[in-house]
Automatic annotation (TrEMBL):
It catalyses: S-hexadecanoyl-L-cysteinyl-[protein] + H2O = L-cysteinyl-[protein] + hexadecanoate + H(+). This is Palmitoyl-protein thioesterase 1. Gene3D superfamilies: alpha/beta hydrolase. It comes from Drosophila busckii (Fruit fly). Residues 1-20 form the signal peptide. Keywords: Disulfide bond, Glycoprotein, Hydrolase, Signal. Belongs to the palmitoyl-protein thioesterase family. Its EC number is 3.1.2.22. GO terms for molecular function: palmitoyl-(protein) hydrolase activity.
Amino acid sequence: MRLLSYTLFLVYCCMHFAQAAAAAAPASADNKSVLPVVLWHGMGDTCCFKFSLGSIKKLIEEQTNGTYVRSLKIGANVVLDYESGFFIHPNKQVDFVCKLLADDVRLSNGYNAIGFSQGGQFLRAVAQRCPNPPMRTLISLGGQHQGVYGLPKCPTLSVSSCEYISQLLNHAAYESWVQNDLVQATYWHDPLHESNYKLKSSFLADINNELYINEGYAENLNKLKKLVLVKFLNDTIVQPKESQWFEFYAPGQDTQILPLNQSKVYKNLRLDQLAKHGKLQFLSTEGDHLAISKAWFIENLVPLLLEE
Ligand SMILES: *[C@@H]1O[C@H](CO)[C@@H](O)[C@H](O)[C@H]1NC(C)=O
Ligand SMILES: *[C@@H]1O[C@H](CO)[C@@H](O)[C@H](O)[C@H]1NC(C)=O
Ligand SMILES: *[C@@H]1O[C@H](CO)[C@@H](O)[C@H](O)[C@H]1NC(C)=O
Ligand SMILES: *[C@@H]1O[C@H](CO)[C@@H](O)[C@H](O)[C@H]1NC(C)=O
């Protein structure tokens, strides 16, 4: 199980900056106004790979004249950090991160945050559960805010291993041992068995106020200055793609997407209030999961980090 997951999820891995990238001039703003930035990596990745979040950290530093960027390492070292993406329950990870952020004096006046893939919904959980220090703008890159239903392609795996994982998620995702042992099961969202999902999902159903409405979650989420959701139009990993914009299948089937403003989570998390105040922003870009170019990052995301 463990080894299989490694191999499988490696294909989910990492940001790869597409080459292209123009060398953009630094954006203009007063250094002092740039808030620190917190990054949370996706599964199969770590805080610090040079080809992945390491390069993003560097890019943000360059673009902001050296603002403080903290790329979260979950656990004592990079190996544990890598494993956390699969095997450490998100609730534990979020608790851990809340403590890290609270202990970091450089963040005490607030920070912006960027979540990569599942790091997007994990940082949203941080915003909802731990309002101090205050998160200002949350950018979610390919996050799965209403979960996933379906196994991504797994080209590096044998057909039988792929089948095995698929069977596990399809038939046992809501078993407690799977919920405890496999991070991806905690945001597995089966639209054919919505009530199972609501009762058994040990992470996503909670942060999405599915079963029990936690007013504090909605309140804290509305403290954000902005929630920016980025969808990858040609994503072959996140099923359905629309989850990146907080949408999902209408209950009872797995083809039709329910528009966000008709879904329960829209009201239950008071996303309607965020939208009403112009704080909910949807961006999209061509390309597969997390496949963004340096130029796109500089053009579309850096300005969000420089806003007052
Ligand atoms: C970075 O510094 C340069 C030169 O001091 C300045 O022109 C530019 O506005 C600064 N950019 C930011 C984002 O602070
Ligand atoms: C902005 O940052 C640059 C590079 O770190 C530094 O040289 C410059 O003095 C800073 N400007 C202000 C206004 O803080
Ligand atoms: C990506 O998806 C968009 C929207 O569905 C489509 O218009 C575009 O042709 C696709 N691009 C590629 C390279 O497949
Ligand atoms: C829901 O959003 C759509 C756009 O996605 C809009 O056309 C429609 O008016 C909205 N409906 C409500 C009830 O707000």
